[in-house]
Amino acid sequence: MKILQLLRDNASREKRPTNLVRNGAEASLYIYDVIDPWWGVSATAVVEALAQVADAELLNVYINSPGGDVFEGRAIMAALRRFSGRTVAHIDSLCASAATSIALACNEVEMADGAFFMIHNASGLVWGDKTDMRETADLLEKVEGSIVDDYTKKTGKDAADVIAWMDAETWFNAAEALEHGFVDRVTTATTTSNNWNLSAFAKAPKALAQPIKPPALPAPGKSMGPANANRLRLLQVV
To answer: Is 164 contained in some domain?
Structure first.
């Protein structure tokens, strides 16, 4: 299961909290970790953050994530779609797997030149007999159907094209993501160096092969709430 390998391979890296910065009528949310309820950015943390800036006119969502739990990602996606202000996703370095749904939940998506956008098939872990295996395969197909629908709505592409890209585990650079409609514009902003071990993926570009220690995130403008604070303390203890 790719998410388990991703968490295992990156277990020793510095955990990256969900940072929230408020500046007048604008707010910025930094999603710089695996999408996971225990070992990365959780939907609960994002909901807590959005509640603190519910009156903001603009929310900038900065993304550098290899993906993770598809259901956690879709919960974050739903929370962003409920946000009353305008939302802009900024793909700073890597937006892969479940993180792509988070980006596409925003009203606009911009991608830094040099960043990558990756889509692939859903994966899961199952133990049991042939009936269990078939039920899990059916569930994965339903999950993928929802993801394909999101991609086709954003890009205007045929479902067959999107499915083929997912089957192939396709890594789009910024120009390709723009060409195919996944993003609305490309910026020349300096990208964040890759800090992930991406061995869980079969076709990660060579440019992302060597993880580099990332720069520090901006200091949060407000507390993320007791639940997230406790989670961060737990991660520090572990």
So the answer is: no
- Helix ranges (H only) for the chain are 2-9, 43-52, 70-82, 98-104, 130-155, 159-167, 174-179, 226-237
CA neighbor of 92 nearest in space, from 22, 217, 193? 193
Domain tally, the chain: 1
For residue 133, tell me if it sits in a domain.
Answer: no
Q: Do the domain assignments include residue 88?
A: yes
DSSP bridge pairs for 20: 29
In a domain, 130, yes or no: no
Task: State which residues form the domain around 195.
Answer: 2-123+169-237
Strand pairing partners for 29?
20, 61
**CATH code of the domain in which 17 resides:** 3.90.226.10
Q: What is the pLDDT of residues 51-105, one digit of tens each?
A: 999 999 999 999 999 888 899 999 999 999 999 999 999 999 899 999 999 999 9
**How confident is the model over 15-54, as pLDDT tens digits?**
555 678 888 899 999 999 889 888 789 999 999 999 999 9
Closest of 13, 41, 29, 33 to residue 231, by C-alpha: 41
Q: How far apart are CA 196 and CA 225, in angstroms?
A: 27
Q: How far apart are CA 140 and CA 142, in angstroms?
A: 5
